Amino acid sequence: MEQPMIKKQNSDHGGDVVGFIDLPEEIVHHILLLLGAKMRDLARLSMVSKRCRELCISTPYLRLSNIDTEDKFKSFVDKFMALRCLHGVPTEQFQLRWSFDGDNEADEYRAVETWLQRAVASGGGVAHVRLQFIHPRKASQSQSQSQSQSFALPLCVMRCNSLWFLEVDAGNGVLKLPSLPYFATNLMILRLSHVRIENDSNIGALFSSFKCLIQLWLDKVSGIKSMAICSSSLWFLSIKSFDDHLCDIDIQLVKKLCALSINLYAKPSAAGGKRSLKISAPSFSTFRLSGFIVDHYCMRDSPHLQEATIDLSHSGVTVNQAAANKNNLDKILQCEECYKANHKA
Where is the F-box domain (predicted)? Predict the structure, then answer.
């Protein structure tokens, strides 16, 4: 009687992963990316065999999250990033979702800064960075109590020539920007959300230093009294603000800007502070303005304007502000009529 065939096991690889780890390295990395493998998944896979550990360390896609992890996870990430830096492994994507739910927030911030520095130093830089910070305790604390710690974007990240996408969701935490001078990079897309800028930094100077920036998203960015945006490369700009300290928005010399969206949801100041909005974007074709009105408005002719969506609230405004609002609408409508007349001609 013929004996049944016994599946040969590989002592190093393990029978369940033989076919997987025998694939070319690039294909394994792509499969892990499609599966959405996070760092804890890599940690488990790296324990299977030496080959699995090498594949995990060499992956160009990093997704770090301490949600539902043990206390030792941070130590594993430290060693993992150190090994990648030692072997010069390039990083294509660096995504981090980190919960700061302890008393050692400063140490946690320094750890994240170190991981970012190692990602940039290893293999010639990083292309895609997405950071999301969660502060469960701060949600119930006052704003003054939650300003004790700040996260500083490492200067090496801001100067990284391979970086083209940067997103920071600070979870209403404080973000410390590098001091001048800034260096021009190849950054194309920048998204800042739920961020409080430290010490009213000159954020406009940061934007103007990125010579290749085409998309800029500012969602609930606070701590800025005035915002001057000047860019020769910007195509899309979105500003959504709930901060009543933001008094002046000055958008100038953005000749390539095609789409502009501004949402000002902070109510007019009870102290009578003046707010202004100045726009000089001759090429933009789509304009969306919503929220509360401003006291002073200046918009230069926009002959290419095709679509304007305006949704402004009159709640709590004075008679003078309402009159100014009517003038603002007239100017926008005049710009659209000018476009239609020129287009027909």
Answer: 21-59
